[in-house]
Amino acid sequence: MGTICIYAIKSAICLAIMYIPYMLLLRNETFYRFNRIVLVSILLLSLALPMFNISPLAFLDNTEMGEANRAITEVGIPMIEIGTLRAELDYDGHQTLTNAPAQDKSIGWAEVVVALYIAGLCVTLIIKLVQLLRMLSFMRKGCLWTSEEDGVKTYCHIRNVAPFSWMNNIVISESDYNEGGREILMHEQAHIRCGHSYDVCLVAICEVVQWFNPFIWLLSSSLADVHEYEADAEVLSKGVDARSYQMLLIKKAVGTSSYAFANSFNHSLLKKRITMMLKKKS
Predict the structure, then answer these.
(1) Nearest-5° angle of CA 213, CA 215, CA 219?
(2) For 281, phi and psi rounded to 5 degrees?
(3) Which of 16, 102, 151, 264 could in theory staple to 215 by disulfide, Cβ–Cβ 3.0 to 4.6 A?
(4) Which residues contact 216 (CB under 8 A, 6 or more apart)?
(5) Is the pLDDT of residue 44 over 80?
(6) pLDDT per residue as tens digits for the range 71-92
């Protein structure tokens, strides 16, 4: 268990070191796809790099370690404890075994830290699973009709739900479908084509492993922003009028909040999305 805790700390440090330059240099640039690649790469590297643990002792084979131990013994270490036995060595080379006092096995701070980390990991994992199951269950409840085109399944709901997508599924309310269905579906289909749901799954894994790291939650927010910028750019590239699309965003901005695992049309960063649409390309 201690190894898992050490891995998580190393992973969190790697992520923080790599994310800070992004936050300072690239966050406000319009290289949406490049920024997304950078953020996903940071996530993958933060998970992979801690596995490569190179220690100076790793270059010593068993023979060299044995010679090192013999050299230490020859210098004159008076006693070596093995389990509850004490091996006493005199300077003439004679060895006697005596019983060693039992060591104190009280719980130390390291065990407390590991226990707290495992508890936080389990709680975060349970929350993520509950969020995923609730979203999957909601897709089919209260659904008026469904349609499937090019492998993408659309669920139309009678309730006033904020449009969102997950993998190859889109959820939209009847009122949104009637009022701005074309642009909304184009936006959600852009999320699907770009594979944003896979990024969300990767972020969720890192959030579980690094639940204590504030930078993973900042990176998660940055990646969600990039997803929305990229989807908006895809919609505008299809010939949709930018002004009418921005008005649609403003109109739909008061919708209910979406699920954590979903890519939502009514994402809360409305001002930044419109600013990015109007911003001169980097």
Answers:
(1) 130
(2) -60, 135
(3) 16
(4) 12, 15, 203, 206, 207, 210
(5) yes
(6) 544 544 444 444 444 445 454 5
